[in-house]
Amino acid sequence: MSHNLPSRPHGDIRVQRTRQRLRAAILELADRDGYEAITIGDIAALAEVNRATFYRHYEDKEDLAVDVLVQVAAETGRMAPILGGSAPVDLDSRIESGERLFEHFARHHRLYRPLLGYSRNRRFMMRVRGLLVPLVRARIDAATDGAWSPREWPPTSESSTPREAPMPPELVPVFAVELLLGVVAWWLERGVPYPPRLMASWFIQFLFPGYFGVVGLEHLLPGGPQTEGPPPHET
């Protein structure tokens, strides 16, 4: 999926350091002045690079903000995956991981509220979806060795409701990402009325039974059936 992003160099440690400085710069500037007031020149000056260097890495400041969010989400997942993982769920560590993510949104609310809030930036949202959805899909694939498909619904043959067509696999991570972005938008628009840890706990409480059930990973839930691995998938 293309979002007309520039081709970014990868691998070179100098490149990674430059991008790290640019990410730090937009966060500092947004915290101080608000996202709307930031210019490319401001970012480049604070990161101690020239504008040409900025444009070798990012198309615009929205592109840089997307990279900030995706990097934070990826790092949070590496520390303790909120979604996925191949071992039984350590609920405390997942809540702590989610807490770090919500803390990031709260700390940098002047960056994220105009981008994720109800007056959201549509281009930013498209870019974020285009990168976070594959990230969540990769978590599911890693937890199942790629051998999964959404469960049929209703779940029992005794139900009087006719079974519907199974959910397309590509829709599962979309539901998870849209839930996260919607919850964060609601939270930021209301001035962060609840602490990050409580938001993380509620998010996981709401998401996990349905999300893990849909992809057939009930055995990874706290108190779920203890098995050696994912249940066999019908072919």
**How helical, in percent, are the residues?**
55-70%
Which parts are unreliable, with pLDDT below 50 for 5 consecutive residues or more?
Answer: 1-7, 225-235
The shape, in one word, is elongated
- What is CATH's topology name of the domain at 59-220? Tetracycline Repressor, domain 2
Order of helices and strands: HHHHHHHHH
Q: What is the overall pLDDT average?
A: 80
Distance between the termini: 29 Å
Beta-strand content bin: under 5%
Helix/strand/pairing category? mainly alpha
Report the biggest beta sheet as strand number plus sense, adding barrel if it closes. Answer: none
Strand count: 0
Protein name: HTH tetR-type domain-containing protein
Keywords: DNA-binding, Transcription, Transcription regulation
GO molecular function: DNA-binding transcription factor activity; transcription cis-regulatory region binding
Region (Disordered): 146-167
Description:
The chain is built from 9 helices and no strands. By secondary structure, the chain is mainly alpha-helical. The chain has a domain of 162 residues: Tetracycline Repressor, domain 2, CATH 1.10.357. The chain starts with 12 loop residues before the first helix and ends in a 21-residue tail after the last helix. 30% of the residues are buried.
